[in-house]
Design a protein that fits this description.
The complex is a heterotrimer.
Chain A (H helix, E strand, L loop, with lengths): L2 H12 L5 E6 L2 E6 L1 H13 L7 E9 L8 E9 L4 E9 L5 E3 L8 H12 L2 E3 L40
Parallel strand pairs in A: 2-5, 6-7
Antiparallel strand pairs in A: 1-2, 3-4, 4-5
Chain B lengths: L14 E3 L2 E3 L2 H10 L4 E5 L2 H10 L22 E5 L7 H10 L5 E5 H6 L20 E3 L6 H17 L8 H9 L4
Parallel strand pairs in B: 3-4, 4-5, 5-6
Antiparallel strand pairs in B: 1-2
Chain C lengths: L27 E6 L11 E7 L2 E8 L7 H5 L7 H6 L6 H16 L5 H29 L3 H22 L19 H25 L3 H7 L7 H6 L4 H6 L6 H4 L20 H24 L18 H6 L1 H11 L7 E10 L2 E10 L6 E5 L1 H6 L2 H5 L4 H11 L3 H5 L1
Antiparallel strand pairs in C: 1-2, 2-3, 4-5, 5-6
Classes of the chains: A alpha/beta, B alpha/beta, C mainly alpha.
């Protein structure tokens, strides 16, 4: 089974409106989909008799401040252990309504991964059983991995701007 | 005693004569304290792994009278903070410090505990001396076990020369008050 | 488009043991285990609801050493990120370093010479041994056997000496460069590796003799903290913990990197996925690692120990002083002036705890646009409540110990 076969199968199953942005990055197939399709798509891949993408390797957020209406993204890494083929599924959501359906109904491991993406980017996973911050302190009022927030600790006084080229 | 070479600690300065030895209580107490410091290993990350090496057979911190690691804060003398302290962890460090009985010393092992190290980020406390007073800093990322031992011996020196009343002095109370500790 | 029926996945959600439905005998107590408990090996908080000695429910809090690696990585040139990877799983830093180097090499299209690949394999397997030594001996300590720990720890010390010979550091190694190693294996390093190959098996046998068939140890670990293969997969387990459950997934075998396809080794698997199986799998992996190191050292190819990639590989110090071009490259690399090509790349290596992945999105700047670490610990630690509910507190401690959860990797 090749990347082309997977792409063809997904296109014939879901159509071009739902599956787009098909590229191959260093031998790894990337497809982009929409928030409505993500859950049926992953369920379809899970129970596909040949592909058997039944292992969620990773899930993470990403932020593109310049892409209007598609600022936030979620990247799913799937792995078919039987065929030893990997697949990346992406989707994009606007920053003012970052609602993505949860995957916790299919993968137990999605629980903490989605909490992490929520913690870092504020992506709201609808239907998640316990969507609270995981790594940062609970009273934090922003999403630190978004591009506009600074990295440095704001309480440092010994770092003079001139010395750090700012 | 056999001919095995056992190194004893030196006696403090004092008057010695036939059948007696006189010295000040301070130095006697200091001697006893310095050679039986019970460390509380507060290991969070990489430096904790180096502490494991310090504690194990090769470097053997037991040679300095601290084979008894006190995991209970109540019975510990030295708080060894090893590793990054995130802001989420800061209240825990402070609580552990408050649970320790006087006299207590604090050893900040490694760059992260001393100053935040390479992690100048929103989530990391920039040095534990922002929340509790520190006696000795050990540089390194992570420090080698020899360095940790050296830092530990510096604490021993402090314990040896400390007056028994230091913890009652107004200066010390003021220091604690500056950290918000009563 | 035809409608997709959603899978009713039985493996999702916490499986409570059957008898937990019975009425509790005692009043329930809440026990706060962590974040600084000495038996948790790292800082995690577990709030346990206990019925006498039995754990009824568990809630975890993590993030106590969250250092914002992924945010830092977005501000640093590629080569400075190696220092961050050191501090992820600090028990086996070289694997992290080289995993990251290979990711960047994939992006840049650098072909690494065979010799460098073999040296990497040697270093990665040494790191795996060092990591498994810690995990297994600490597991023995947690069941009450301190002696074995002191036996094998001296060999971890020896491995650190080899690291020092190869890169100068003990723990946070920052080993290698993009394109290969920073220096060749010295005679002393080869001698020390040979000493390890000759002498360590004796110590390991002694350690196994003390622990492996020890009645107390077996009683404490057999059937403790078991997880089935289906659930382990659903929880995203990888590495020794997944193999203990009976799934032979090993990145080294399935997606060979750095010439792993040249070596003969076996992937040990367990049957029950309990603490004892995890112990055995890690023990056997140490033997396999020794085997791989022996093969790599015996067949060490001649040639250069680094790729010819002047834009990314730091020139020799000698050349920097005498050669204009080398000085320019040196300056550009150190100042992080070299832009990476645009691209997205995922690379994974078999870390000591499982599949350690790097997902690097580059927009053509000097720093990654986004770098996501797939940390095995973070992913499998969430199964911990399920593995301990219904067992006693002392079982929970050995379960956590055998899972080898490293706080630095979990929280990044």
């Amino acid at each position: 089974m090749t990347n082309e076969q997977i792409a063809q199968d997904l296109l014939s199953q879901f159509g071009e409106e739902k599956i787009f942005g098909i590229v191959e990055n260093y031998g790894l197939l990337n497809v982009t989909t929409t928030t409505e399709t993500i859950v049926p798509l992953l369920h379809y891949l899970y129970q596909h008799p040949v592909f058997k993408f039944q292992f969620l390797t990773d899930l993470g957020g990403i932020h593109f401040p310049d892409a209007k209406g598609q600022e936030l993204g979620v990247i799913y890494h799937l792995h078919s252990l039987e065929n030893n083929v990997r697949l990346i599924v992406k989707l994009h959501v606007p920053i003012d309504a970052p609602d993505v359906p949860t995957l916790t109904g299919l993968y137990a491991t999605a629980n903490w991964m989605e909490r992490e993406a929520f913690d870092f980017y504020g992506i709201n996973f609808v239907g998640h059983p316990n969507l609270i911050r995981i790594l940062n302190v609970e009273d934090m009022d922003y999403f630190p991995m978004r591009k506009e927030y600074p990295l440095e600790d704001a309480t440092r006084e010994d770092k003079i701007d001139a010395l750090f080229g700012r | 005693m056999s001919d095995r070479k056992i190194q004893m600690v030196d006696a403090p300065a004092g008057l010695e004569g036939q059948g007696f030895f006189a010295t000040s209580l301070d130095s006697l107490v200091g001697l006893a304290r310095a050679n039986s410091l019970w460390p509380l290993p507060f290991a969070t990350s990489c430096c904790g792994i180096e502490f494991m090496a310090t504690m194990a057979a090769h470097y053997d911190i037991a040679r300095f009278g601290s084979e008894r690691l006190s995991f209970s804060a109540r019975q510990a003398d030295v708080l060894m903070v090893m590793g990054t302290i995130a802001k989420k962890m800061a209240p825990v460090v402070k609580q552990v410090y408050l649970q320790m009985a006087e006299p207590r010393w604090v050893l900040a092992v490694g760059a992260c505990a001393s100053s935040g190290g390479i992690f100048d980020t929103y989530s990391v406390l920039q040095g534990i001396d922002r929340i509790i007073p520190v006696d000795v800093y050990v540089p390194g990322c992570p420090p080698r076990p020899e360095q940790i031992l050296d830092g530990f011996m510096q604490i021993q020196e402090l314990a040896k020369s400390e007056s028994t009343r230091r913890r009652q002095t107004p200066e010390y109370k003021e220091l604690l008050a500056s950290y918000g500790i009563e | 488009m035809s409608e997709v029926a959603l899978v009713a996945n039985p493996n999702v959600g916490i499986a409570k043991p059957q008898e937990s439905n019975k009425k509790y005998v005692n009043e329930l107590t809440t026990l706060n285990l962590g974040p600084t408990h000495p038996a948790t090996h790292g800082i995690f908080q577990n709030i346990l609801t206990m019925d006498g000695e039995t754990i009824v429910d568990s809630e975890q809090t993590v993030g106590y050493i969250h250092r914002a690696f992924e945010k830092i990585a977005e501000r640093r040139p590629l080569y400075q990120i190696t220092t961050l990877t050191d501090r992820m799983n600090y028990c086996s830093s070289p694997i992290n370093n080289m995993g990251w180097h290979m990711t960047v090499e994939k992006l840049l299209g650098i072909e690494v010479p065979k010799r460098a690949q073999y040296i990497r394999v040697i270093m990665m397997e040494l790191a795996r041994i060092a990591d498994h030594i810690v995990c297994n001996s600490i597991l023995a300590v947690d069941t009450g056997a301190l002696t074995g720990f002191l036996y094998v720890m001296q060999w971890r010390e020896h491995i650190y000496e080899i690291y020092e010979e190869v890169c100068g550091a003990r723990l946070t190694t920052n080993m290698g460069r993009f394109g290969g190693m920073e220096r060749d294996l010295s005679k002393e390093a080869i001698r020390k590796i040979n000493v390890l190959l000759d002498e360590f098996p004796k110590s390991l046998l002694e350690f196994e003799g003390l622990v492996k068939r020890n009645r107390i140890f077996m009683d404490r670990t057999t059937d403790v903290g078991a997880i089935s293969a289906e659930r382990a997969l659903n929880y995203g387990f990888t590495g020794p913990n997944l193999r203990a459950a009976g799934v032979d997934y090993d990145v080294r075998a399935m997606n060979p990197y750095s010439s792993y396809e040249d070596f003969e080794f076996e992937v040990p698997v367990g049957t029950k996925g309990d603490t004892y199986d995890r112990f055995l799998v890690r023990g056997e992996e140490m033997w396999q690692s020794l085997n791989i190191i022996r093969q790599a050292l015996n067949n060490l190819p001649e040639g250069s120990y680094h790729a010819d990639a002047p834009h990314y590989y730091l020139p020799k110090k000698q050349d920097v002083y005498h050669n204009m071009e080398a000085l320019i490259y040196h300056f550009k690399i150190v100042m992080g002036e070299i832009d990476a090509p645009v691209g997205e790349v995922y690379h994974s290596v078999e870390g000591a705890n499982g599949e350690l992945g790097f997902y690097l999105v580059s927009d053509g700047g000097r720093a990654p646009y986004r770098l996501k670490f797939r940390r095995p610990c973070f992913i499998y630690y969430q199964a911990f409540p399920e593995m301990i509910v219904g067992s006693t507190l002392s079982d929970a401690i050995v379960t956590m110990s055998s899972m080898n959860v490293i706080a630095g990797e979990l929280d990044v």
